[in-house]
Amino acid sequence: MEKIRKGDEVVVLAGRDRGRRGTVLGRVGDERLLVEGVNRVKKHMRPNPLKGDVGGIVEKEAPIHVSNVALFNAASQKGDRVGVKTLEDGRKVRFFKSNGELVDA
After folding, report:
1. Distances (CA, A) of 54 to 24, 30, 61, 105
2. pLDDT tens figures, 93-105
3. Which of 11, 53, 55, 83 could form an SS bridge with 79, CB 3.0 to 4.6 Å?
4. Are 32 and 64 in contact (CB under 8 A)?
5. SS3 37
6. How far, in Å, CA of 82 to CA of 90, rounded?
7. What is the pTM of this model?
8. pLDDT for 16
9. Beta bridge partners of 59
10. Hey, which residues does 72 pair with through a beta bridge?
């Protein structure tokens, strides 16, 4: 079970965007995430008339390593570590390590 999923709100812990919050747009492989508004890079695109692309300089999000982000805890207003535990009915749920509050409830 992944501790950080698509749609989660995360806080960046390291890098030039440290402290910035954003929503996870998706996963790239097992260890990288695309986070909205974080790690933006400029990509030079060549025009392609067959696809209708104009070309130019496009700004887009680049993947960031999952170790450089933490799930945002609304109770403490900070990034928090996440654990996984199994409930009595057999479901696996995520919880915040600092206060034990469930993420998926």
Report:
1. 28, 33, 19, 45
2. 999 999 888 987 6
3. 11
4. yes
5. coil
6. 19
7. 0.84
8. 94
9. 42
10. 79
Local structure of 104: helix, strand or coil: coil
- What is the amino acid identity at position 71? L
Token digits of residue 92: 């696996």
The tokens 């695309």 sit on which residue?
A: 34
The structure tokens 């680049």 sit at: 62
In whole angstroms, give the CA distance from residue 63 to residue 6: 13
In order of their start, the domains of the chain are: 9-79 (2.30.30.30)
CA 93 to chain centre: 18
Q: What is the distance between the alpha carbons of residues 64 and 33, in angstroms, rounded to a whole number?
A: 5
Burial 53-92 (b: 16+ CB within 10 A, else e): eeeeeeeebebbebebbbbbbeeeeebbebeeeeeeeeee
